[in-house]
Amino acid sequence: MESSSNQPQKNISENFFFSDALKEIISGLSKRSQEIIFIRYGVHGGNALTLEEIGNKYNITRERVRQIVHEVVRKICEKKDNPYLVQAKTKITLAIQSNSGIIEKKKLASELGKSDKSEEAAISFFLECVDGINYQEIPGVLKASYSTAEFNVKKWKSIKDAAVEMLEKKKSTLLLDELFKSIVENYSFSGFGKENLSHYLDVSEELARNSFGKWGIAKWKEVSPKGTREKAYLILKETKKPLHFREIAEEIDRHSLNKKKTHPQTVHNELIK
């Protein structure tokens, strides 16, 4: 299992908020610098603005905005003993370490920020200051993620490739237990457990888990069904029993396969084609 030899302190306040910490830690800067940081990252309401949008707002060039942001980040990151910065960095580092050493950027922000956009924005700022972590991304292979410095990307890829091979060989989606068993029976990976596999698969672009908790190739219909017809067939396949089209519509919604409410008549029309 991936871990760090330099474990951070865990005495973190449960009432810690990244957005409040950022507000406090930059309070000594000029009002304009504070405002630029808030609107650049999207902290305290609103979406993050582009360099050009901020430049237009303050009648300065994009490059000047970039310089201001860079300078603020540099100054804050140098405050290594600041309690707000220490807590922010510790929470981020612990989250990555507890996820087998790698976590998708979106998941990191969502979990630590508790789905609060202002919190997620502040986390993006503090990520600039965290030592001992690396940004990882391989288009089409590895989602935008953060890992510990010692995380072995080569080992991750080997395990991910093994999962892909097992799934393609079986030509079927598998529960995590089943997939882990198949990999263990066919490969020899040291220091590797079921929880590691779950974390490793989470950051893969090629693999995904469907609404029934089964893993498969992301493009498979059983994993990412498109349209009511494919979703209906997935429901029938997983329930393993005949269902009335009204029941199918209810199951589609229950498993969050549609963003909008599924109409029974639509299911009926698709199934009789």
Could you name the key traits of this structure?
273 residues; mainly alpha; Arc Repressor Mutant, subunit A; 3 domains; two-stranded antiparallel ribbon
Report on this model:
The protein contains 13 helices and five strands. With 273 residues, the protein is mainly alpha-helical. The protein has three domains: 7-132, Arc Repressor Mutant, subunit A (Orthogonal Bundle), CATH 1.10.10; 153-217; 227-271. Strands 1-3-2 form a three-stranded antiparallel sheet. A hairpin with a 3-residue loop joins strand 2 (133-138) and strand 3. The protein starts with 17 loop residues before the first helix and ends with a helix.
The shape is globular
Helix content: 40-55%
CATH superfamily of the largest domain: Winged helix-like DNA-binding domain superfamily/Winged helix DNA-binding domain
Number of helices, where a helix is a run of at least 4 consecutive DSSP H or I residues: 13
Summarize the structure.
The protein has 273 residues and is mainly α. The chain contains 13 helices and five strands. The radius of gyration is 23 Å and the shape is globular.
What layout of secondary structure does this protein have?
Elements: H1 18-25, H2 31-41, H3 51-58, H4 62-77, H5 83-97, E1 102-104, H6 105-113, H7 117-126, E2 133-138, E3 142-148, H8 153-170, H9 176-186, H10 194-202, E4 207-209, E5 215-217, H11 227-239, H12 245-254, H13 264-271
Antiparallel strand pairs: 1-3, 2-3, 4-5
